[in-house]
Amino acid sequence: MEPYIKCAECGPPPFLMCLQCFARGFEYRKHHSDHKYEIMTSDFPILDSSWTAQEEMALLEAVMDCGFGNWQDVANQIRTKTKEECEKHYMKHFINNPLFSSTLLTLKQVEEAKSADMAITFHPSDDPPRPTFDSVLSRDMAGYMPARADFIEEFDNYAEWDLRDIDFVEDDSDLLHALKIAVVEIYHSRLKERQRRKKIIRDHGLISLRKFQILERRYPKEIQDLYEILRRFARILGSTEHDKFIESHALEFELRKEIRRLQEYRAAGIQTFCSAKVYEHLKQAREEARLKRTVLSEVLDYIHDSAACQQWLHRQAAIDSGQLQITPISVSQGRRSAPPLNLTGLPGTEKLNDKEKELCQMVRLVPGAYLEYKSALVSECEKLGGLRLAQARALIKIDVNKTRKIYDFLIREGYISKV
Question: Is the pTM of this model over 0.70?
Answer without folding.
Answer: no
